[in-house]
Predict the structure of Alpha/beta hydrolase.
Amino acid sequence: MTEAAASGWQPDHFLDRYEVRTIDLGPDPDGEDPITATLIRRPHAAADARYGAVLYVHGFTDYFFHEPLAEHFAERGRAFYAIDLRKCGRSLQDQHTAHFTTDLRCYDEELGKAVDIIVDELGPDTQILVAAHSTGGLITPLWLDRLRRDDPARHAHISGLLLNSPWFDLQGKPVLRTFPVSMALKAIASVKPKTVIPQELSSAYGESLHQDSRGEWSYDLTLKPLGGFPVTVGFLDAVRTGQRHLHHGIDVGVPSLVLRSDKTYFSGEYSAAVDVADAVLDVGQIAQWSGCLGNRVTTIPVTDARHDVFLSVAHAREQAYREVDAWLAATVDADVDQADVNEAEEN
């Protein structure tokens, strides 16, 4: 038996050379047992960990497949891990409603366990940069705010928060964000949470990404369908509850970087304009609510970025990577470098 197998790691079926580890979870509050989460790691993670690690969290209708993102961080001294949350991606099982939860706080369980696994592997002083996209960009700040207050020992391992087009508000007509609509949604969710929202989702964004359509990226369409998974009332209510909490102001307790496109373009059909804009979320809402994360927030619009800025056209994603590198050097990594200088002076 290999060392990886003995520690619970197995070869990934989706990415060559990557490894996965199943995280067992407790009973599903939404009654779709059994549930697990899946931690993914780039090979030889410990050798990359001069600046600690990255824990990447995907969005809705998503899973981790983006190797260039992992390679970028590994080349800059960060061991790379990603998590497919319960009922998502590699963790999705036949009995599950894809990406379904009625409370975003449920994800605290697998996120906390992922932190513990990374620290156990890399050492007790390991610092972790949390990176998250879209719905993951709402889940993780709320989790860190709770972690700061309720579990400071775990929170001490978090060095920063990188958000990629976080879902901070409900896009669409203003009436959808009114109190009566929110209360009606909550009432339906309390009795029929798996009711599907009767709205057809556009496949334009998916078409702009996938290499068998119009894009350049290869991923499994059963785990990330072009038109997305159906949105349930219970899930949307959980998201709206989280968004309202964020809007009142939270404190993630670490420096934060928010990346987004410089424009939004909603369309029912693909066109070239979809390639150079956020076709999923309203970037004005992201800009409006980014300040609610705490006291050390940097927000940067990336020219011509897609909804996932790291899956954008080449010049946009290159800008996004430059912005990340500059922010890390000025904030998170500056503390590590100063610690190295202090240690050298003492010796």
User: Anything to note?
Assistant: The CA atoms of residues 251 and 294 lie 4 Å apart.
